[in-house]
Design brief:
188 residues, alpha/beta, Rossmann fold, six-stranded mixed β-sheet, two-stranded antiparallel ribbon, 6 helices, 8 strands
Length: 188
């Protein structure tokens, strides 16, 4: 059964720098989802930095943590982007993902059946591959559905500038990841 409302796609990720290649890649993918008819929201660097360290105590979530949990609950699909730091997901992004634990007792437990597009940027292919594998594992453990395409970007060449990616192939992959999330979100 198709949805009659616009799907809501949450973009989660980035670094401490809003101009990072990770956040720029995420914004490009989110824009592709918006262009395809989604309502989108970016939960990026500013809000990631405002999140307290996750603790399983609702009193310790803070306003930003509560906001993130509500966005996750509302999401029909997610795009998650992380830099590859030392071969794995950054602590900043992992902390945000840990907040999904607050949905453990919801009707839709965690990300059950939710399509998740994954994006990784790093300054080397080894970190790209291992970080993408780690994100896939995390999404599976949260019962999410990682899209067939995971976008791995070696950003060492400085291909992002002012929200624009100079590599046509990477742009196409970011668009495809968003399309895969949208296709699945529209059929939920």
């Amino acid at each position: 059964m198709k949805q009659t409302k616009k799907p809501f796609i949450l973009g989660l990720g980035g670094t401490t720098n809003p101009a990072s290649s990770t956040e720029q890649a995420l914004a490009i993918a989110l824009q592709s989802a918006a262009d395809a008819g989604a309502e989108t929201e970016l939960f990026g660097s500013d809000r990631l930095l405002a999140l307290p360290h996750y603790q399983s105590d609702p009193a310790g979530l803070g306003d930003t943590g509560k906001e993130l949990v509500e966005l996750v609950r509302r999401a029909d699909g997610l795009l998650i982007a992380s830099p590859g730091y030392h071969g794995t997901v950054s602590g900043l992004v992992k902390n945000a993902i840990d907040y999904i634990e607050e949905t453990a007792r919801d009707e839709r437990v965690y990300l059950d059946g939710v399509p998740i597009g994954l994006i990784v940027t790093a300054y080397g292919w080894q970190a790209v591959g291992s970080t993408l594998a780690a994100l896939r594992s995390i999404v599976h453990s949260l019962r999410g559905w990682p899209t067939p395409l995971g976008v791995g970007i070696n950003a060492s060449g400085g291909i992002f500038n002012d929200g624009i990616c100079a590599d046509a192939g990477v742009n196409e992959q970011l668009k495809l990841a968003a399309q895969q999330v949208m296709q699945r979100a529209e059929t939920r």
